[in-house]
Structure formats: structure tokens, C-alpha cells
Amino acid sequence: MNFMDKALMCAKKAEHLGEVPIGAVIVKDGKVIATGYNMREKSQDATKHAEIIAIKRACNKLKSWRLDDCDIYVTLKPCPMCAGAILNARIRCCYYGAKNLNDNDDLIEKIMDSTKLFNHKTKLTFMPNEQCNIILKQFFKQKR
Amino acid sequence: MNFMDKALMCAKKAEHLGEVPIGAVIVKDGKVIATGYNMREKSQDATKHAEIIAIKRACNKLKSWRLDDCDIYVTLKPCPMCAGAILNARIRCCYYGAKNLNDNDDLIEKIMDSTKLFNHKTKLTFMPNEQCNIILKQFFKQKR
Fold first, then answer.
1. Which residue in B has a C-alpha nearest to residue A115's C-alpha?
2. How close does chain B come to A123, measured CA to CA in Å?
3. Which among A26, A97, A139, B143 would be 20 to 30 A from B20, CA to CA?
4. How far apart are alpha carbons B57 and B69 in whole angstroms?
5. Which of A142, A99, A117, A130 is nearest to B107 (CA)?
């Protein structure tokens, strides 16, 4: 199972709870060190996106706010908050499995590339995974 | 004491802990409902900025991820993560007391105005407060 599939497994946990199905895993030295899935509704906390939860856990595990040499795999392209958190945590690469249809103007690319604000730059890579798309489409179809 | 002065008091708490002195307060119906100050170093958590802490507390207090009719006062212009969190929480207005000298290209304005990603838009207003600047300058001067 590849890392995007592991992120997808996290998204499925969110789905079971009735949350928008988005999942994330953080990888260091070829091993998953932290996972997260969207918990906004259950927690009623606007910051509880998959990526933020995974970053907090990874920081806690490594006892460092600097997640050097770590990569994050997320099922959906991050929102501005999560893109900023990924950058703040100095994560090396961010791989995402599905595009956000509402995202244009390359805002997320601009955040990841905002070297004037940060010394660090996170490489953002689209790693297409049809299942990451399907799980979201099905969720919103059921909600309608 | 105005709300920016209250945010500044939070920044001073961060300063006492050796953290970059940044503070935030969230206001609803003319009352402070949550406060936060930067705790990145003490917690070794990349997400523990003043705004994120205040937003989490406000969500917890209101038992809702939607901070409708809430405003946030922060001593320094938010970073992309915090700007995204403010938007995610549907905060009405964001007032900041000092500009971030490394911020250009209006990235934060673009995040706050990213209506394609969100139905919501947060009004961003610079409310100059010389003390917000001085506390940061003194902190970095001592660090050098």
C-alpha cells in the first residue's frame, strides 16, 4: 500500500463519522509517523483539518516544530490554512491526490512558494488518485 | 483598554516565556471571548500561533466551528496559516497592529479574499499600534 492509499484510509475514517472525507499521513525515512483525518464537525473546531491534526501529532512525536525531511500525503489539495501550516512546519514535499475544483489563481502554489515570508519552501506535487476524488464526490452526492 | 491593547497584553505573556511576542483576542458582541499568544517554542508545535490558539478556544467556548459575528485583533499581520484559519472559522474582521516587513505581494489579502475557495470573506484592517512593533523589535534585538 502506498502512502496516498494510507491517506485515503484516513479519509474513510472521516467518512464513517459523517465528516468531509479528507485524510493525511506524514512520512519520514519511508515510514508513516503521523496520520489525521478531518474532524471539523465532530469537534466543532474550525482548525481540525486532516493536515493540522497530522502535523500536531508529528511535532509531538518528534518533539520538534520542525518537521525536516518529512513529507505529507493528503487526499485533497490543502486549503490556505493547511498549506500555511505545512510551510510553517518546514515539511519538504506535499503530495495531494485530488484537485480542489474551487481552487484557482494558484493561491496554494503562491503560499507554498512564499519565500519572502519564510526561509523554507515546500514542493507541491499532484499525485492523481481517482479514489481520492470518488470518495469526495460520493460524500457530497449523499449530502444533497 | 481597547482590544488591540488586550492583544498586546497577550503578546507580553509570550515575551515572558521567550516566545516571539505575538498575541490575539477574539471579540463577540463587544466582549473578549478568547485569547491566545504564540507558544511555538514551548510546545514545539508548528501550529501553536496566537491566532490558532484563540480560534480553538473561541470554537470551544461557542461550541461551534463557525465564529460568526466575531472579530479577531492580532498584534502582527497573520501568516498564511493563521489567515486561512481566520477565514475557515468565518471570522468577520481581522484587525492587526503591526505589519510584517517580509510580507509583500499581498498574499494575506489574497487569502482573506479567496471567495472561490470559500463562501466567506474576512475584512482585513491595519490598525497601527506602535507598541505592537516595538515589542517585536526589542525581542529580535535581544536575540541577536
1. B102
2. 16
3. A26
4. 16
5. A117
CB contact under 8 A, A46 and B89: yes
One-letter amino acid at A36 equals G
**Could you report the per-residue pLDDT of B64-93, keeping only the tens digit for each?**
999 999 999 999 999 999 999 999 999 999
Q: Determine contact: A4 vs chain B, CB below 8 A.
A: no
Q: What percent of chain B has pLDDT over 70?
A: 97
CA distance A125 to A73: 10
**Helix (H), strand (E) at residue A140:** helix A130-143
Q: Is the pTM of this model over 0.90?
A: yes
User: What is the tens place of the pLDDT at every residue in B92-105?
Assistant: 999 999 998 777 66
DSSP B2-66: -HHHHHHHHHHHHHHTTS---EEEEEETTEEEEEEE--HHHHT-TT--HHHHHHHHHHHHHTSS-
Percent of chain A's residues with pLDDT above 70: 97
- Asked if A55 and A27 touch (Cβ cutoff 8 Å), the reply is no
Measure the CA–CA gap between A118 and B100, rounded to whole angstroms. Answer: 12
Distance, CA of A23 to CA of A8 (rounded, Å): 6
- Interface ipTM > 0.90: yes
d(CA A35, CA A64) in angstroms, rounded, equals 16
The residues pairing with B35 across neighbouring beta strands, listed in sequence order, are: B25
Strands B70-76 and B93-98: parallel
**B130 catalytic residue (yes or no):** no
